[in-house]
Every structure is written in C-alpha cells, then in structure tokens.
Amino acid sequence: MEILQEAWPIIFLSLMGLCGIVGLVAVLSPKKFTVVAEIGGVWVTKPKNTAFFESRIDIDQFVIRHSRQFGSMVTLGVIYQTLAFFDHIDPLWTPFFLLFIIGISGCVALSGLIELGGQVSKIEHQLAEARVDVLTGLANRRALDAELKRRLSEKSRKGTGFCVSILDIDHFKEINDKYGHLTGDNVLTKCVAKVLQNSIRTMDLAARYGGDEFIIIYPACNLARAAASVDRLRSEIATKLFPLEDTEIAIHVSTGVAEATGEDDVASLLARADGSLYAAKKAGRNRSFQHNGETCQSAQITETEPQADIITPALVR
Fold it and tell me: Which of 273, 303, 274, 275 is nearest to 287 (CA)?
C-alpha cells in the first residue's frame, strides 16, 4: 500500500501527461488525431474502404471537424485535475468545473448529432436518386435487380408468387430516326412511363430495363392476372395518339409475361419473359404473350390489328 501511495503521483502524472498529449494533438493537428484515435481504439468503427457508389464516405472528416472541441475539453480537464491534485485549486470549484465541462460536451455532442443527421439525410437522398432512372422517373436497373432478388428470395422462403412483364416499344428506332431523339425521349416519358406510373398498383414496381424496354414486377399475382393487367396497359398506350408539331403518331408496345417458379433465378425468369416478348413481336407486334412454363401463348384480352412494319402517322386532328 505504501508503495502504491508513493507511486500514485507518478501514475497520476503519467496518465494526465498522456491525456494532455492526446488533447494537444487534437487541438493542434486534427488529421494526426484521427491516427491517434484509431491506434487507441477510440474510433474503431471507422470504415477504411467504404464506398458509396462512386463517392467515398470519409468518416475521418467528422472526427477532424470536432477534434479541436474534444482536445480543448481534454486539455482543460488535464490542467484542472493537475492543479487540483497539487492543491492549487479550491475543491469547492470542482462541481462548477464539471458543470462547465458537461455543458460544453453537450453542445459539442448536439452539433455532432445535427451534422450526422444532415449527412444521413443526404446519403438517403443520394441512395434514392441512385435507384431512379433519370429520364423516366421509374426505378432503374439497379433497383430492379435488387427487387427481383428480394422477390425470388421471398418466394423460396415463403412461397409468395409473383410475375414479371417486359414491355418493348415497337419500331422505336424508326421513331428516333424519323422524328429525332428528343421525340423518342418524350415517347419514353410521356407516352409509356406516364401510363405505367398511373396504372400499376402501389405494391408493383415499374422499371426501365434499358433503351425502350420496361419491366413490371407484379407481387402476389398469378400469371393470368398479370397478363390481363399488362395487356390493359398495352391497349391503353395504343389508344393514345402522341402529338407532334403537325401530326400525331400511334405508339404501340409488345409485352411478354412470365411467372416465377421455385427453381428460378433472375436470369431464367427474365429469359422466359423475354421469350414471350419475342413471340409477341413475331406474331405481329402490338401483342401480349405469356410464358406458361413450357410454351408461349397469346395473353390478349382486347382485340387489335397487328402493327405494320413501318410507322404510320395518325390523321392530323
């Protein structure tokens, strides 16, 4: 005990010296403080190679911005405790000093929470934007792939069925070549994407698959219902004339539908839906076909004339 009493001043001063060094480093060199903090295990949750798509999330910057406040409090605490240890400060001042430190710490913590909350909101906004197709406002390929994997996983665990439909704009290349790419973009957004957004259920997901192809995921839906739903979309698009400067043109889509099975992965499911889309194209376009697991067959509930192989502008109104 006597040895401990004799060694206590040395132990105390060593600890205060170490804390003082940490505090001074935090005040004088915030960048070096991040290294000290990592070595000391203070910032053990810092991801070193975390990337948010193309941009890095640098949590070190958060430590750097708040290190001076932290270092100042540590340094003040070290000075006060050292002076109090050698009886240079009246112990009656200790409660006031602790209240002061707690108040400053609360302010620093509050500002840090506000900053982190802003960063979380910004990341959530970026994440939402990263899953949306810029042109059409529908889900993009990234969001589509994630949803397909999630639905297939849910089906394997719970047996929850769902269907996938592919829509392809007929003769879209000719539209671009004849009327320009701006007109083609307007066809994608105002004629097709808008109909999809306004017609699908809340639980459904409509996504731009690429170019002039769109995919709809129909959760908790069998093949017959999904085929009927997508054929109504096809019919609705076909009945609306798209206005140009001096004329109007009819836009048609071909569709293919497939229902997920327990053996499916993303590739096999999309392959069947794409096979039924090919059958619709082969049958004359402006058609709806479904894949029943073995063969492709017509899924139309509304009669229509097959689309010709050239674009025929509608009569001027």
Answer: 303
Which pLDDT tens digit goes with each residue over 35-89? 555 555 444 444 444 444 444 444 555 555 556 566 666 666 667 666 666 666 6
User: What φ, ψ does residue 77 adopt, rounded to 5°?
Assistant: -60, -40
**Token pair in block for residue 264:** 């499916």
* Six token digits for residue 316: 């001027």
Report domain extents, the chain. Answer: 2-130, 141-314
Active site residues: 212
Question: Cβ neighbours of residue 278 under 8 Å, at least 6 residues apart?
Answer: 256, 296
* E strand map for 62-130: none
Sign of CA dihedral 115, 116, 120, 123: positive
C-alpha 308/C-alpha 281 separation (Å) is 11
Q: Taking the model in full, what pTM does it have?
A: 0.61
On whether the 141-314 domain is CATH 3.40.50.620, my answer is no
Nearest to 308 by CA among 110, 207, 179, 174: 174
The two structure tokens encoding residue 41: 């295990």
How many CB atoms sit inside 10 A of residue 195's CB? 19
